[in-house]
Amino acid sequence: MVQSPAALTPDEIVAMLQMRGLVDADWLRGGWRLAFPHDPHNVALVSHKDGLGLAVKQPFWSENGGNRLVRREAAFLELAAGGFLGASIKRIIPALVSFEEADSVLVTRYNPGEDFTAFHHRVWSGDDRAVIQAARRSASALALLHDAPIPVPLSGRASGFWNGSPPWVLGITQPGFTPPSMEWSSAGIQTLLATIQNEPRLGPPLLTLKTDWSAESIIHGDIKWSNMVRLRSGRVLLIDWEHVELGQPYWDTGSFLHSYLAFWICALPLNQYADPREAISFPGWSLSLAQRAIREFWQSYIKSRRAALPADFLAKSIAAAGARLLQTACEQARAETVLSTQCAMMLQTSLNILCSPEKAVATFFGSDTAE
230: helix, coil or strand? Predict the structure, then answer.
């Protein structure tokens, strides 16, 4: 198997940026600094004392994984930079600076801000207004993306990536399922996968979503709070476009809704609860605030979309939230030697949503309707 190029060292990153003319002598005088805030993702942030900077992303997996993902993201950003996706979309994505096919190193403009996970941890218990505002602006960002024109025909790098494939998790219960990466060897993920595939109630709703899948619009494909940044102005930026695809927009809206569930589960003192329904009133979690934020998100999204939404869009978004929570459990379990209580809770919550979508709507939105 062909391997990705070896990851660049900090000195090699600096040399590469200087060779491309992206940094200057200020670096040597201490005007710039380099940090790896998310080292597993092979992203280096190169920032200047004035607040401007660059994000340098390198491949992380093999040729069938990391290289392809970075090239997919580069293809999308190239289309956006060329104006093929409309002018407005540039407000919600990082600006492309450079991409070299030879080394698969992607450089984008770095905008100082706070990812949504850190932001919500900071404001959840003290600033309801900020939580609601972030939900509204997230809705506007996703609506803008989903209304973006699809270039026809696709050309350049994008033509080799955008094929309308459904998310891998939708086929996880089917015979012959192939894991999306080689990082599925831990005891934790093997236990979780066996549990999922032995649960007969999961298959039908996941298969329904997979069968319904079509290339409706451009979607981010991996919406979660760690892939959303709140800039200092309050504007929302969507990052990590490695899974951008042509697909169903309800996957993105459902993934955003799922982030509230993941946030809740990760904050729980799980040894106190045997069932997720018992933990709804956990003191560190405000269900009413989550419901208000979700209602505001949903109403803002509907108002912001130019295209009319089908009658079952809410139901499909709720189902997608359940499926996305199952995917999050798998992503977390890959690094576990023993399946964690958090992953087990995510699995149970996902099952509850997929098997009882009407109850899930009431839990997500509260007593008010979603309309």
Answer: strand
Go through 276-298 and write b for each residue having 16 or more CB atoms within 10 A of its CB, e for each that does not. Answer: beebeebeebbeeebbbbbbbbb
* Long-range interactions of 14-17: CB distance < 8 A, separation 24+: 14/46, 16/56, 16/103, 16/105, 17/46, 17/54, 17/56, 17/107
Can you read off the two tokens belonging to residue 200?
Answer: 């007969």
Query: Look-up: residue for tokens 């407005």?
Result: 88
Can you give the pTM of this predicted structure?
0.91
Integer Cα distance of 244 and 105 in angstroms = 18
Q: Which helix (H) or strand (E) holds 100?
A: strand 96-100
302, amino acid identity = I
| pLDDT tens sequence for the chain (371 residues) | 344 456 788 888 888 888 888 887 766 677 778 888 765 557 888 887 766 689 999 886 444 466 888 889 999 999 999 999 999 999 999 999 999 887 789 999 988 899 999 999 999 988 999 999 999 999 999 999 999 998 876 666 666 678 889 999 999 999 989 888 767 888 999 999 999 999 999 999 999 999 999 999 999 999 999 999 999 899 999 999 999 999 999 999 999 999 999 998 887 775 555 565 665 555 566 888 999 999 999 999 999 999 899 999 999 999 999 999 999 999 999 889 999 989 999 999 999 999 998 899 998 998 655 55
